[in-house]
Amino acid sequence: xxxxxxxxxxxxxxxxxxxxxxxxxxxxxxxxxxxxxxxxxxxxxxxxxxxxxxxxxxxxxxxxxxxxxxxxxxxxxxxxxxxxxxxxxxxxxxxxxxxxxxxxxxxxxxxxxxxxxxxxxxxxxxxxxxxxxxxxxxxxxxxxxxxxxxxxxxxxxxxxxxxxxxxxxxxxxxxxxxxxxxxxxxxxxxxxxxxxxxxxxxxxxxxxxxxxxxxxxxxxxxxxxxxxxxxxxxxxxxxxxxxxxxxxxxxxxxxxxxxxxxxxxxxxxxxxxxxxxxxxxxxxxxxxxxxxx
Amino acid sequence: xxxxxxxxxxxxxxxxxxxxxxxxxxxxxxxxxxxxxxxxxxxxxxxxxxxxxxxxxxxxxxxxxxxxxxxxxxxxxxxxxxxxxxxxxxxxxxxxxxxxxxxxxxxxxxxxxxxxxxxxxxxxxxxxxxxxxxxxxxxxxxxxxxxxxxxxxxxxxxxxxxxxxxxxxxxxxxxxxxxxxxxxxxxxxxxxxxxxxxxxxxxxxxxxxxxxxxxxxxxxxxxxxxxxxxxxxxxxxxxxxxxxxxxxxxxxxxxxxxxxxxxxxxxxxxxxxxxxxxxxxxxxxxxxxxxxxxxxxxxxxxxxxxxxxxxxxxxxxxxxxxxxxxxxxxxxxxxxxxxxxxxxxxxxxxxxxxxxxxxxxxxxxxxxxxxxxxxxxxxxxxxxxxxxxxxxxxxxxxxxxxxxxxxxxxxxxxxxxxxxxxxxxxxxxxxxxxxxxxxxxxxxxxxxxxxxxxxxxxxxxxxxxx
Lengths: 293, 466
Hints:
The complex is a heterodimer of chains A (293) and B (466).
Chain A: H1 6-26, H2 47-58, H3 73-79, H4 121-128, H5 130-133, H6 154-161, H7 167-171, H8 178-188, H9 197-202, H10 215-229, H11 231-234, H12 253-262, H13 276-288
Chain B: H1 10-38, H2 50-82, H3 89-111, H4 125-147, H5 156-175, E1 178-182, E2 185-188, H6 192-209, H7 213-227, H8 234-247, H9 263-275, H10 277-290, H11 297-300, H12 302-324, H13 327-333, H14 338-367, H15 374-407, H16 419-465
Antiparallel strand pairs in B: 1-2
């Protein structure tokens, strides 16, 4: 009978399709973004951040960058930047979500925690010419974002999205470039939640004494660690670029260890990506490798 | 019935030609973006950056090549299976015009950065409306032809076609619900985790309703025609059909494993993905068993090669897919290049192979002549097969390598490789993949030449008759 009545057939096909749809797509609206998901600290985007988000969408950044840290140890370690895995409540203001499906570049859910520099100098240099900071990167250059931001629709956006805003927020847009906006957006990503950073700062490094006193013994490893982790900002010969020159230092070994491990204004922390031995090797290189070696 | 039914095929021809053109665009853009991944300096202007071009590649492939050819072939198949002329040839011609305007505008607006970012639903609201109108016009035409049919029994192909008509409509409309800001920008009505869940309910079922049901409809029509055998089992077809369209809709969240989407949705998606192996392989075996006693045609009939290779890739795809939907395996390969490898086995191996066979067959019928060159068709077959295999195998290897490196930790729990080390490791694979694109393109050009020459041959024969 079914094979002979197209009207009944098509209605039945619709019903069958709607069963799984109802359970896995419609029913979850009851729970997702509900009270249990809410996180008080999570704030909506400011007009500048939302403009930046729209530029992020326009340029299709989501084609290469995901924005969700999975509940996997390696994900939290690599992309958490001191924060934990992503939670539903962090995304309640995201229309649309920008979780992405491919990590050609790294996840950006908590990129705001990585480079604390308030001027976003790392981002500026990186967006203008990614290879100048990360030589092997395959990211396109976005220097063309250094053009005036069109904010004609900003207020209407805030109203449509039902985000709070003040006159001062809107005034802030004047004279801003598209680059300023996208960096404001990236600096906001992942920063709403309290992070483990506060805890980390109070944790003293286990060993205060540099176990290495002879540079020769650790030089090869130290140079390789340096090339991977530091050269992008401090220059391939430690001559300095975004960050200061690293040929010798007035700081004590323990102070240098703390800076590398915990980061400081403008510099990300490496405590989660380098082990203690590795950090001491770098300290040794910085302190003892005074010349162009 | 005395007079033979007069079928109307001008729109089938139009859709075939235009879908081939858009398919070529998809391959060309694909090659360009594959080169950009290896050589970023090829991102020469804002509208030629990877982020803007990649949606053009996927949209030209899915909507231009996929949906365009399905519309053309469904007009053809539906008329034959119902023994009824197309309900409205004028509406079909209008649909073709709208289709080309829609796809061309899609390419232009995406290059301008007008982009909703939801995968395979990137087009902003005015164009999304155009897509919906195209689909409704096409659906009405096909459905009215079925309603007015002269053949009472509806063959399996018609079921898959009708399921696609309903399914695509529901999926596309819901995932595009939004509030317009102005003509070129809108915001979805869903936020965050809800938006993600809706998106992948759509994303995965676009695979069901666009890249599975329609090619199956085409396969089930053309394989029996080509080898002149009846379909092996009507009953198996019924069971496979209903369980396929029932199970698919539960599986979207396997794209979101380990994310904030509620665990129970992820688990259901994983379980139903594995269950989907059964109906998928039901369809595969129905195909294989239909070949009963005629396997020697794999050597002698170039169309059989395309069709059987296509359904085999469908079988492999529907084994690999459920494997990827398992949490542990997903943790390993998700977000890596494994996934593009998987997708291209489905699109280049399964969907395109079946479409090539159908287009050769229809071109012969429409021109009432044999194909211009079987030898060229064989060359085409080998080039696209080798191109696709190199693409997929290279990307799987890259995915396994990058996945292992990303998860590798030192004894103290810190990560062993920096992100850049994992990227540097896969550059060689990117270069090989770009080469595979050129091989595939060569195959496509041979196909286009062969089709062109066959139409030319047909035109000459027509003139001679007149």
